[in-house]
Design a protein that fits this description.
This protein is an alpha+beta fold and 505 residues long. The protein is built from 13 helices and 8 strands. The longest helix has 29 residues.
């Protein structure tokens, strides 16, 4: 028992130090923040410049972490995404999360023993269904925060869109689309990649696997970013027009934008740093007090005042009404005609090849409901097909679609008494030398076969960027045998979803 304790402690210390050292060695290439430097210009978000700033020398702060730029909102339009810094900061955050897991989860430390490649492949292969067994707080609060942090890491390394605010119209939504792409890639890496929960800790071999994190982390994370941006414009910015109190300003920026603050830490900036905003310490604070005093006396403008983006003169841009690309996030309920039903969700992508025809691909998972105690069932479907949209340019657009692919049904029966006994023996040091895997205390029955689906529904456009797929009713046919009491050969599925339209705005 003493040997096991010493071994675990050494593994913990080595792994945490290795992760943090490797991550820090990358992240420290980003210069640290010098918040007490004098900022010579206040850039537009767009914002108004105080006349007192015009007499200050130079057009840019020398602080490497406060690249506030000049007052031209188009100055960085040709700048490229800073991939190196974004990946450094993204993997620094990944290393931070792994360090936390290794420090707090004995089962993760234990999984470092064994054949890495074989366990990694097995862990990925276990992915199925929708729910992963985590609590609501973990799946729908913590993981979306993770997605938002990855999103803000992307934004702070994207010079063209690093200063967007809620209300900036098309530019704002392009920025969110770019951060969604980066967040999707990094959160998928965290779940399934070579430096993921699957490769370091083999989490899918211990806990229930599911698609909820792959879908929810980037999408709900983007919603968190939008909420923080709204709070920043309507709560934080007006507060900065009224006070120069440093604790109040720091707390308001961090409390109302927690994920952006954490992303700043990954770049070794102060958490209250805001791109294009006056700092809160040192000479920045003195300047802020002077500007607030001028505004109170009527001799100067507000410190921050939002103005809509300038509309360019000349010919207006023209965009098609039929979206060239669509990305969908859906939730669905399916009833199996042979008995049973399931609830879940999924995601799909569609490419338009003709004004009324799309090629689509979709992956979804659902959890079988009303299963006996200590039993669970799930379904995973992966399909490609076509969608006919005769009125795609209209606000109300009906459609028909047909898809083909595969379906996997899994029924798992847990021996809870055996699981508890194995865990107790492992905790006491009297049982097996490794943390018990699900396969040691559960039995799994599985079928995989060809699957077809056909149906239709209606979309309602919510502006140029979004559509609500109000209802989609499909008949499903799967060529697979019964999996115990789950009879999924024939079914009816009804779904509703949010659709992001790309290329129409």
């Amino acid at each position: 028992m003493v040997t096991r304790y010493v071994s675990r402690t050494l593994v913990l210390q080595f792994c945490v130090l290795a992760f943090l050292w490797c991550s820090a060695s990358l992240a420290t290439q980003t210069p640290p923040l010098t918040d007490d430097l004098y900022i010579s210009t206040i850039p537009t978000l767009p914002l108004h410049e105080n006349a007192a700033l015009s007499s200050l020398p130079g057009g840019r702060s020398e602080s490497p972490a406060q690249h506030d730029g000049d007052l031209d909102s188009d100055a960085n339009n040709n700048a490229h995404f800073q991939w190196k810094k974004a990946l450094q900061q993204g993997f620094f955050f990944t290393g931070f999360m792994h360090g936390f897991r290794l420090a707090t989860e004995p089962q993760t430390r234990d999984a470092l023993n064994g054949h890495w490649w074989r366990n990694y492949k097995h862990s990925i292969g276990e992915l199925r269904g929708w729910d992963d067994g985590d609590t609501f707080m973990t799946s729908y609060i913590a993981h979306p925060f993770e997605g938002a942090i990855f999103g803000y890491i992307a934004q702070q390394n994207d010079p063209r869109y690093s200063r967007v605010m809620w209300g900036d119209g098309r530019k704002y939504w392009i920025a969110r689309l770019r951060t969604l792409g980066f967040s999707t890639a990094m959160s998928t890496q965290w779940t399934l990649g070579p430096a993921s929960e699957a490769s370091i800790g083999n989490v899918q071999l211990r806990d229930s696997p599911g698609f909820v994190d792959l879908v929810g982390t980037p999408i709900f994370g983007t919603m968190v970013m939008i909420a923080e941006d709204i709070a920043d414009r309507y709560l934080v910015a007006p507060l900065e027009n009224r006070t120069a109190n440093r604790p109040v300003l720091a707390f308001s920026r961090m409390f109302l934008s927690p994920t952006r603050s954490f992303a700043n830490l990954m770049a070794f900036r102060y958490p209250w740093h805001r791109e294009g905003r006056l700092g809160i310490n040192g000479e920045n604070n003195k300047l802020r007090k002077e500007m607030l005093r001028d505004y109170a006396e009527g001799t100067g403008p507000k410190l921050f005042e939002y103005t809509p983006p300038k509309k360019r003169s000349g010919e207006a841009a023209s965009y098609p009404r039929e979206a060239p690309i669509e990305i969908e996030s859906s939730t669905h309920y399916e009833t199996f005609l042979g008995g049973g039903s399931c609830i879940g969700g999924g995601g799909s992508g569609a490419v338009r090849i003709k004004p009324s025809l799309q090629l689509i691909s979709k992956v979804s998972g659902c959890m079988v409901i009303n299963m006996p105690k200590n039993q669970s069932g799930d379904s995973m479907t992966y399909q490609v097909g076509t969608r006919w949209t005769p009125r795609a340019a209209r606000r109300v657009s009906p459609f028909l679609q047909m898809m083909a692919g595969g379906r996997r049904i899994t029924h798992e029966i847990d021996d809870v008494a055996k699981r508890d006994a194995l865990l107790k023996e492992w905790d006491d040091g009297a049982g097996p030398s490794h943390y018990p895997k699900r396969s040691e205390w559960s039995a799994e029955h599985q079928e995989n076969g060809l699957a077809l689906s056909a149906g239709g529904g209606v979309d309602i456009a919510l502006g140029r960027a979004f559509a609500w797929r109000v209802g989609n009713l499909e008949y499903t046919r799967s060529w697979l045998g019964d999996v115990d009491q789950i009879h999924a050969a024939n079914g009816l599925r009804v779904s509703s979803s949010l659709v992001l339209k790309i290329g129409t705005w």
